């Protein structure tokens, strides 16, 4: 009897903790979404349900252009970062005789723990100096933002790929090798399918890191390269903006769809 | 030692695909380490009007080769209590919010990790969604909530706790709240990663052997999740020290933070050498947590090889 009460208590505590925890995580976002349908210029005074701010959002040239720029930079950055992240993952887990291995581990994980304000400042100073010395990059703009985003995203992708590679059984690759399979074939037929879910997660993470970045982009951007966070920040730095509420709701929707697809990718992967 | 590595390197390059292995490292050296070295170089340069607004460290003229370096930027920072206070504010913000994230995040990570497999995956996705939602928009959400006419004030007035809306924005408590909220996933996810790996039977075993729940926690669960605690704490502490956006959106003039000072020094005062000296001092202060993170990372991610 006492045992049952104890167990009930534990279960209650568990459910209580999870409900409080998840409410804390979701309450602000959900409130923002609810108020995005508010037909009032004053964000927090409810006047009635409408899609007014969504319409205005889709007519706002500045936001649309920034969105397009951000998506372009983010997808390029994610692609390059994923390619290099895979290379790092491989060199750190598959090549045991790599010289000075601790140095390369250090190199690949350093950007994970560098405050973005220092990263942004250092990259900007670098671009300006290299422009003085070799004339490249000719001006600050989308290219410099792209290079900066690739630089900090690589480390995150590498962590994901490397943890997948070191957790799965290397013997499968060795068995294939013993059976005389050529190395390229081993990669495409065995390794690639195994790490594919991690590659997708890594790409998505790099994509969101780039789409999300305000500080580094503010330092490294130039004319014609206003990314979405830069525009949003300029709108909400001093006040509230109902258009930004609508934008939040749309981004939230995209993230939920992405999360659901990752969930299904990983689930089918676990079943295998 | 070095020639040994060099020999290994040569032998190795003949065998492996050089570019496949080294391209990403060249990239990181070029765009991560050289820029950091450049910050150091500019931090000991002399300020000057013009573009770029500092004098070259090395110059070659008729008088010969000259090194024009100075420590005045550092002396300037450390003689002004304004800068020192902003460092201390940032460190105390980072410390407070790391502790709060740990206290709030640990039970969540623990219970999610202990859930049944099918529920666990759903809870994990629910944890990752806020992590992927724009950081800026999550901070903005609190700005909306904490307004004088915001929903929290309305609820408090409805419940009769207060009669007039109270000002909850633009102070350092709002900043702490914003930081804890946005950085919580950085704490929960590494904790979860370690908690999910360990064998739940260990808890049952401790209980069966008569350990009190407190002792089971302190002597079994806590030590096994320590790497997660350290990793999560570093992933919160280090970026928060340089945080700019949250104090800018939710904070007021009661406390100034390190990130904001660098930003203003660079964008407003256009004093690059002082901004660089500030950034360098930031790295020096953070070197200890960064090294701990690196050692942990190398130890726990590569221990089997």
Explain this structure.
The complex is a heterodimer of chains A (272) and B (305). Chain A has helices at 2-35, 52-59, 61-93, 101-109, 116-134, 142-167, 171-178, 183-212, 215-220, 228-236, 242-271. Chain A has 272 residues and is mainly α. Chain A has one domain (52-271): MetI-like (MetI-like fold, Orthogonal Bundle), CATH 1.10.3720.10. The longest helix of chain A has 34 residues, at 2-35. Chain B is an all-alpha fold and 305 residues long. Chain B contains 13 helices and 2 strands, in the order ααββααααααααααα. Chain B is globular, with a radius of gyration of 25 Å. The two termini of chain B are 22 Å apart.
**CATH architecture name of chain A:** Orthogonal Bundle
Alpha-beta content class of chain A: mainly alpha
Mean pLDDT of chain A: 85
* Shape category of chain A: globular
CATH superfamily label of chain B: MetI-like
Overall average residue pLDDT of chain B: 84
CATH fold-type name of chain B: MetI-like fold
Q: What is the name of the CATH class of chain A?
A: Mainly Alpha
Number of strands of chain B: 2
State the helical fraction of chain B: over 70%
CA radius of gyration of chain A: 23 Å
Q: Which radius of gyration of chain B do the C-alpha atoms yield?
A: 25 Å
What structural category arises from helix and sheet content of chain B?
Answer: mainly alpha
Topology:
The complex is a heterodimer of chains A (272) and B (305).
Chain A: H1 2-35, H2 52-59, H3 61-93, H4 101-109, H5 116-134, H6 142-167, H7 171-178, H8 183-212, H9 215-220, H10 228-236, H11 242-271
Chain B: H1 2-15, H2 18-43, E1 58-61, E2 64-67, H3 72-79, H4 81-114, H5 117-132, H6 135-145, H7 151-159, H8 172-195, H9 201-208, H10 213-241, H11 245-250, H12 258-267, H13 272-301
Antiparallel strand pairs in B: 1-2
Helix pairs in contact in B: 2-13, 3-13, 4-8, 4-10, 5-8, 6-8, 8-10, 9-10, 10-13, 12-13
